[in-house]
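Open question from group meeting: does this chain pack into something compact, or does most of it stay loose? Before anyone orders reagents, we agreed to write out a predicted structure and look at it together. Recording both the input and the output here so the notebook holds the full record.
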Amino acid sequence: MISGRLGFSSMAVIDYVARRDPVELLSVATFNISRKRMRALESLHRRGLVRDARIVTSDVKAGRDRYCRDACARMGWRFDEVKNHAKLILMRTEGGARHCVRTSSNLNENPRIETYTWDNDAETYDFYSQLFDALREMRG
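Structure tokens returned:
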């Protein structure tokens, strides 16, 4: 997919899936997450549409994204800052789907054209899920 001239946030992809099939585990690797998008994730969590998450951002701004770190702590989600520039969204849903979205978009407001490759495939999901485990080990 290509987001088009007006663009849209990767949050729209998460919201689309969660409203149709609650997400048991959301895994997000992104350079950064805006406060607005973190609040949207909190809202999905409160409504039971995103139950658990592991979020990895870049350590370039390590310690400065207190809101995201604190929000994750309140919800019992894992949050790590590592040498990350990947943009990846994994969603394991209640209905058994295994969504894997590779994108050029961070999880923030974005008026730019972005690209998205979206698979619902267990093998692809498992491959990238192992990346999240490896990223956690890269913490400084």
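Observations to bring back to the group:
The two ends are 35 Å apart (CA to CA).
The beta strands are 23-29, 50-58, 78-82, 88-93, 98-103, 116-120.
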